[in-house]
Amino acid sequence: MSTKEKTLEELLLQEEVLTQNEIVLHNDDVNTFDHVIETLIYACEHTPEQAEQCSIIVHHNGKCTVKTGLLDDLKPRCTMLLEAGLSAEIV
């Protein structure tokens, strides 16, 4: 096996280890659109337009992935969503 092939194989292995997780926001009958939008802007650093689109998708589809990334980054963000009264989980 050449050095180039070995390096490529190691890189592919590292990419598999660094899998992306997702925060999925679920619809509820309690929170207003404004509250959801404001919380997504704060907790997930969405733009107002992005937060509004996610809130509409959640309303119509029942859920929406609102943030992807490494678990260490997503845990505190998901906690902020939950503390704000939203229904969210990391998958």
TrEMBL record:
Q: Which residues form a coiled coil?
A: none
SUPFAM superfamilies reported for this sequence: ClpS-like
Keyword set for this entry? Hydrolase, Protease
Which Gene Ontology BP terms does the record give?
proteolysis
Record carries keyword Transmembrane helix = no
Q: Provide the GO MF annotations for this entry.
A: peptidase activity
Q: Where is the Adaptor protein ClpS core domain?
A: 22-83
Q: InterPro entries given for it?
A: ClpS_core, Ribosomal_bL12_C/ClpS-like
Pfam families in alphabetical order = ClpS
Name of this chain's protein: ATP-dependent Clp protease adaptor ClpS
Source species:
Postechiella marina
